[in-house]
Structures are given as C-alpha cells and as structure tokens.
Amino acid sequence: MIIVSGIMVVLIALTQQGSASTIPTDIQGMRVSWNNSLRYNFGMRMQERDPRIANNALYDQGDALFDRYDPITNRLDWLSEFDLIYQTRYGLRVTAAAWYDAAYDSHGRSNPNALGASAAPLSYVNDEFTSYVEHYTHGPWAELLDAFAFGAFDVGHTVWNVKVGRHALVWGESLFGSAHAVSYSQAPSDGIKSISNPGASAKETALPSNQLSLLAQITPALSLMSQLGFEWRPNRIAEGGTYFGADGVNEGPNVNRLPALEGGSGDLGLGLNWRPAWLDGMVGLYGRRFDDKGGWLAQVAGNSQTRAVYSRDIELLGVTLTKNIGGTSVGAELSHRRNDPLVSDSAASGAKGDTWHGLLNGVTSFGPSPLYQSSVLAAELTWSSLDRVTHNPELYRAQGYLPTCDSGATIRGCADQEFMSLGVSFVPAWLQVHPGVDLEMPLYFSKNIKGNAPSNGGGNEGFTTFKVGLTAKAYARHQFDLAYTAYDQKLEAASDTVFGSRVLGAPYQDKGWLSFTYQVAY
Q1: pLDDT at residue 4 in the model
Q2: Alpha-carbon distance 319 to 306, whole Å?
Q3: pLDDT of residue 13
Q4: Which of 16, 116, 346, 380, by CA, is between 20 and 30 Å from 100?
C-alpha cells in the first residue's frame, strides 16, 4: 500500500504540469503527440464464501485467497500513447502499459479441507505463484501494446489505408462482447484487466498482434477491408488461484500442467461495407479463417496432466446491418462457423462442428426528465444454435452424445441446441452539478436466459452479472468511479461427486465486490 501511495503522489504531481501534450517539431506537416493516463483502482470483497464453491477443490484456491472485506485489487495502471502523423496520411503509433497490484503477493492460498483435493491438486508448487502470474496479476510489469505504421495511398480514384505491425481489429456491430459476433477470436482479449480493473479501456483490453490490415474506400458507398495475421496470441484470462480464476488453468499453474497446443499465425479476413442511399444504413459482409484464441483449457494429456488446446482453421461467414430507426441506432449480425470448437469432454482434443450465431442491439438517448438531464440506453440480444457436429462427436458434451449428460444436463455443463443472452446498459447523467463536474450513474445487467451454448466458452444458462455505479468527470481530465458488481449463477450441493457440489460457469456467485477508481489524463 505504501508503494502504491508513493507512486500515486509522484504521478499525480506530474499530471499538474499539463494535460495531453503535442510535441513541437520543425518539420512542416508533422504532428507528434504523447498522451498518458493514470488509473488507480481499489476493490474490496463484499461477500462471505459460499461453501459450495469454497469447499470444492476445483475452485477453492481462488475463493480462499481473500476474506470478506479484504482488498482484492489495489492496483495502479499507466497507459502511454505516442503518435506521429505526417501530412495527415502517414505515421506510426506506439502504446505501452504498466501496472502494479499491491493486493497480491507471491503466494496463493487454499482450503485444506476442500473436497476432491486428490483429483484436483494445488495449482502451484508450494502455493507459490509462477512468474507468469507475478507479471500479469501482481507486477510491477510493463508491456508494449500497439506498435504499427500506417499510410493512406491513392490508387486510381480510390484511397487505401494500410496498417502494418502490432494492432488490434474488431469488425462488426456487437456491443457487449464477441462470443457470438463476427469478431469472435479476431483480437485476443486481456480478460485479467477486463474483469478486475474497472475503467480499463478497449485500447488496453484488446491485445494487439502483428498483422497487416487494409481499409479501402472503393466508392463513396463501398469500402473494402482485409486482415492478414503474422502472429497468434491467446486470450489472457484470470489465472488459477487468483480471485477470478478457476483452479488449475491457464498459463500460470505449474502442477501437472503441460505447455499448450497453440494456434498458429496466418489469420485471414475480408470484409465489405455497403452504404446505399436508399437504405440509409450499412450492410456488411465478412469472411474469416482463423485459429481460436479461447481454447479448451483443461484437456487431459496423460499421467494426470492437463494442457490447453487451441482449435485451428475455424471458418466464419457473416452479414451485418446497421441503421437508424426512429432515433435508435440498430445493429444486427448473423454468422455461420465451420470447425467451431464445441463444449467438450476433457479428452486430448475436443469436438468440433458447425454453428449459427446472431445478435440484435440498439442504442438510443433520452433528453431531460424529472430524474436526469440526459441518458443513454443500450441493449443487446445474442443467440447461437448448433448446426451439426463434424469432428469427434463422442467428445461433444451434450445429451445424446455423452452418458454424463443423460440426466441433470444443464447443471453438469452439457450443451443445449440453442443459447440466448441479454445485456442492458442504462446511463443517466447530470451535467454541471458543480462547475466543471458532470455526474453519471452507469447501470448494467446481463443474463444468459436460455441454454448452455454449444460453442466452447459461449456461455452458461443462468449466469448473471449486474453492476451499479456512480461516475464523476471533472474538468475533462479527472474521473472518479464507485461501483458494486455482483454475480448469480446455477450451482448445487451434490453428494454424487467427489467435489461435493456442481458449479455452472465461472465460480463468481460469492465474489461480489465494491470498487473505487480514479483516472487522470495528462
């Protein structure tokens, strides 16, 4: 805590020297800027342990790490962005991030009385976190994010915008995640920051990779985009033994854990956006071939060892639509995947198949009311369905394929034919409550309302997240956030399993937490 407080004092003092800076140059037409942001986040566990999670050896380590009212994060983040632009057509961008979380140290914890410990041993030798966990959860650590050059080139009567180097691409119209979107596995995500670091922006949570991308304006109504990947990176998830992690996975644990069978470089993508005048909207067509970034995370590799396995050569075809209807911005997607990794038994490999995915969303704003001065409402409905199982059907975790799923299929994590989920965000705002200060109250709710998704990692029935917060934005540079986040899910005591319970989805039922965040740009 002393270290974090000292760094906060120094960096906040530095921010008083000026805001986002433009660096003067003697070269005509060149603009150079160096922008920085500092974020401090403090989070506290607000719930007692649920014995159905705490006494289950599959989940006890993350649950044992912090008691009620303990800090679960006490973290400082720094994001630095350097941009050089020449004649508004050429340039380069480099960004980097650094962090330190004083809530963690080098050791984990476990419940010595957890049920099923012989089948699910500790994640770490001597309960000591590995360097991977130390780097990405505890710190101090830093990493390079974006590092790419770009240029705009005239080709006949068209303009071609090219980027090469480390950057992230996210296509399509989804609002609340990409699990069932045309952007599925397009950019690996930093799930550690996403779930435990309120205020982290998409610039930090979408992990860039080395690739070549193109956006060409063919006509005023028609644009072409493409992607060629030179590097494969997996999603970064909360590691086993950390507060939001499931024991035994993923990159960090070193007990009975083998290196992953990774994906490869060479992701390909092609998209076409069409804005006909008669539509007053945009239609998008997309085709992609890529390797999975999520993976089957605990596949059996022999001798009681496990490893992550990432599926290769997934193919996706999708169509999107955006249009303003009665003042509401509406987006829709429909996509079909081949060789999609399915929910599978923990064998050496997994089942694959063809799946359908869709989403429908809308964003609208409201003017003054007796309760607020303005507000923004966003909602999204997602859907997926199994088309057919094409590879290793005997490993598909679903009724009619595995005997395990013949009874109590949903709570056992067995896939259903269809899956649906709903997410809603509502943000009322009050402007100038004090000179230079605006207030917002972000409200968010999401629930998987039907089925366990056929696709691996696609979602489990009943899993619910809700969040209520209060945000103060001061003088265009400072932001203060107070929020409470809680979760609900299906789980049950179960005497017929050595673990004593069944937990459907990530073990978050007892992990409700209160967070305070301060951000400043300079």
Answers
A1: 47
A2: 38
A3: 52
A4: 16
The number of beta carbons lying within 10 Å of the beta carbon of residue 88 is 9
Per DSSP, which regions of 463-505 are E strands? 464-474, 478-488, 491-493, 501-503
* 3-state class (DSSP) for residue 9: helix
Burial class (CB in 10 A: 0-12, 13-18, 19+), 359: buried
pTM equals 0.93
Strand boundaries in 392-436, DSSP class E? 418-434
Token pair listed for 447: 């629930």
Any bridge partners for residue 520, and if so which?
Answer: 38, 478
Per the CB < 8 A criterion, the answer to whether 412 and 406 are in contact is no
Query: Rounded to whole angstroms, how far apart are CA atoms 444 and 113?
Result: 37
Residue 198 · residue 515 · CB < 8 Å: yes
Percentage of the chain modeled with pLDDT above 70:
96
Residues 57, 499 contacting (CB under 8 angstroms): yes
Asked if 315 and 338 touch (Cβ cutoff 8 Å), the reply is yes
Cβ-defined contacts of 268-273 (< 8 Å, 24+): 268/227, 268/228, 268/229, 269/169, 269/171, 269/186, 269/225, 269/226, 269/227, 270/224, 270/225, 270/226, 270/227, 271/171, 271/224, 271/225, 271/226, 272/222, 272/223, 272/224, 272/225, 273/222, 273/223, 273/225
26-58 burial, b if ≥16 CB within 10 A, otherwise e?
eeeeebbeebbbbbbbbbbbbeebbebbbbbbb
Mean pLDDT taken over the chain: 94
Lowest-confidence segment of 11-20, 260-269, 378-387 by average pLDDT: 11-20
Give, in degrees to the nearest 5, the angle at Cα 191 between 190 and 194: 95
Instruction: Measure CA of the first residue to CA of the last residue in the chain; give whole Å.
Output: 24
- Give the pLDDT of residue 204: 87
DSSP string, 171-232: -S--SS-STTSTTTTTS-BBHHHHHH-TT--HHHHB--EEEEEEEEEEETTEEEEEEEES--
Q: What is the distance between the alpha carbons of residues 210 and 212, in angstroms, rounded to a whole number? A: 7
Q: How far apart are CA 224 and CA 213, in angstroms?
A: 11
Residues 122-180 pLDDT 10s? 899 999 999 999 999 999 999 999 999 999 999 999 999 999 999 999 999 999 999 99
Q: Nearest to residue 184, comparing CAs of 418, 371, 384, 442?
A: 384
What is the band of 20 on the pLDDT scale with cuts at 50, 70, 90?
low
- Does residue 351 contact residue 344 with C-beta atoms inside 8 Å? yes
Note the pLDDT of residue 7. 47
- Strands 464-474, 443-450: pairing is antiparallel
For the stretch 182-200, pLDDT in tens is: 999 999 999 999 998 887 8
- Reading the block at residue 400, the tokens are 């009619």
Kindly state the average pLDDT of the residues 288-301: 95
Taking residues 351-375, report their average pLDDT.
97
Q: Encoding tokens for residue 288? A: 């992609």
Type of residue found at 396:
Y
